[in-house]
Amino acid sequence: MNRKIVLISLLLSGCILTACTHTKSQSNQEEKQIEQVSSKSKSTEFAEYLSKNETIIYDLENSKSTSKETRIQFLLVAKNDTITAYDLRGSKNSKYLTLGDVSKLSDKEVIEKAKELHKQNIKTYYDNLVNYYKEDLELTQKELDEYKAKLDKYPEGAVGIANGSAEEHEQRIERHKKTIQALENSNELTEFSKPSTGSYSINLKTDGSGNQTAYESLKYTGTIFDKKNKKIDFSNPLKNYFPTTEDNGFGVSLFYATDIYDSTFNIGVNKDHENTIAIRTNKNTLYTLDNPKTNLKNITVDKK
């Protein structure tokens, strides 16, 4: 009987000791996880960081989700209160970069690749412009020729012409010929093939308290291709399609971190809950919106 009591006591002691050890081990593990989470969520104010560090910003094709397949529209290099913009949009069949692509490259390799694609894309935009005018010239001439051929067979009042009058067709043909000649003789393509560098500014919009930033937007001055049919200035034909504006940029309401392959990215989310930018960081960095009390000179604050 005494042996049974001793045996039971030993078993109970072992269970209690095991339970205590497990509880202590679990507690230590939880503390370690909390430390890791705390370390990972170390916050860094976005504009404050840009003002002190050369930073590559990936301006994304806006979407509700982000993956290795997410395409990059522009690569922006922030340095010394300026932004250099590389146009990575391209046309339908152009090569492009994704977050998965850049995650495997160093920052230096990313910029070299962006330079290459930017130059190719500008040349593609130019070629597409020239081809557009040539194709429209051919179509306009064909419509005019068909109209004139019908006039030989039918009375003038019984014959029509598509897309305007015969006089408008003749004017468009003359204008297209001048435009094509101006574009083909332009020596501006080399200059526009260089990525543009300009200043940037940041605007903070606060919440109702006026003490917290609810939305942060960045605008930069850049020469960005804008494909809209415009009247050509024949003395400077490409300038219409490569306007220098201050309206380029993006806005964010929050950041979150995500891993793609071996790289960690901070993703900026806009008002429409779309992922709009990505910045590669170390695993210990999480960007936050800037404090309205910031002393940075290129920041303005709008209080609600």
UniProtKB/TrEMBL annotation:
Keywords from the UniProt entry: Coiled coil, Signal
Signal peptide limits: 1-19
Keyword Coiled coil: yes
Coiled-coil ranges from the UniProt annotation: 130-186
Protein name: Uncharacterized protein
